[in-house]
Automatic annotation (TrEMBL):
This is Iron ABC transporter permease. It is a multi-pass membrane protein. The chain crosses the membrane at residues 32-49, 87-106, 113-134, 140-159, 171-193, 213-234, 261-286, 332-349. One of its GO terms (molecular function) is transmembrane transporter activity. It is found in: Cell membrane. One of its GO terms (cellular component) is plasma membrane. Keywords: Cell membrane, Membrane, Transmembrane, Transmembrane helix, Transport.
Amino acid sequence: MQKTRQSQDHLQWLILRTGFVSARLDRRVPKILLGLMLVTLLAMVWSVGQGEYPVPPLDVIRTVLGLPTDNPDYGFIVNTLRLPRTLVAWGVGMALGMAGTLTQGITRNPLAAPGIIGVNAGATLAAVSLIVVFPWVPIAVLPLAAFMGALAVAVLIYLLAWNGGASPVRLILVGVGFSLVAGALTNLMVTFGNIYDVSQALVWLAGSVYGRSWAQVFAFTPWLIVFGLLSLVLSRELNALQMGDDVARGLGSRLEWQRGWLLLSSVALAGAAVATAGSIGFIGLMAPHIARQLVGPSHEGLLPTAALTGGMVVVVADLMGRLLFAPIELPCGIITAVIGAPYFLYLLIRDRK
């Protein structure tokens, strides 16, 4: 019986070791990741080909690979106008998916997300302040301002939730309070700001990747790589946190230190995403739940799956926003809100106990 169980366990899990990092992956994870990548690539090719000047899918692929096509204008349309926008949508979705998974793991609450506990609200408040109150400040400062706003709110949440330790319940309650306060201050600035600056802020608040260029891609990518890799390295610690603080300490976890690094990673990913594409809601809530249904609760496989799921959802949402009421484009944040709000209510009813 023992040999049978060991054999079944070997068939179910993959043990990966590289350097000082090891991971225990469900055997479904590689197949699921490959499937998500293929679906995302198909959606990206289709998205890049859509617009006022349609580009056939094969020509999209040939243009991206630098191969010749029948129309010389495809190079400018694909590589300059549309591909950066699609890559930003994918990267922002990945960052929000990972940030949501980290937040749910830290708080041990399946309904938690950066947008719910105040991190996104802090980034939004800082960015809107820059746009409305300090319009003379260069827009290149926006990503840093959003990150600093998210970080400031996260630090305040952590300090106010501290009582001999940062309990997950206190983190959520304090975070919801900060989210409401930051949202009220944002609305106040939008109400009394200059109409031109406010119009810019409102477009940004809706959450959109319209007009994004290679500059945004290059500015956002380091944040995604650095803090995405840090999250993956710390993913095993999230598994220990799920068993409770006492058990995690018993297993040798440096609890507050690890929770602080995980929170910093979540804040950095969410802040960079908000700075790049505005407030795209519910991705941090939906992606971890979808990923958990696909690969189970182990964070070594859950984090990359949630990242690819979030990226796929935002790419598809941006595509839907461009096609549903063409030639009028809807911001992808509106599409994710239409899908995410009912999904949140479903989760709230399912987990009401």
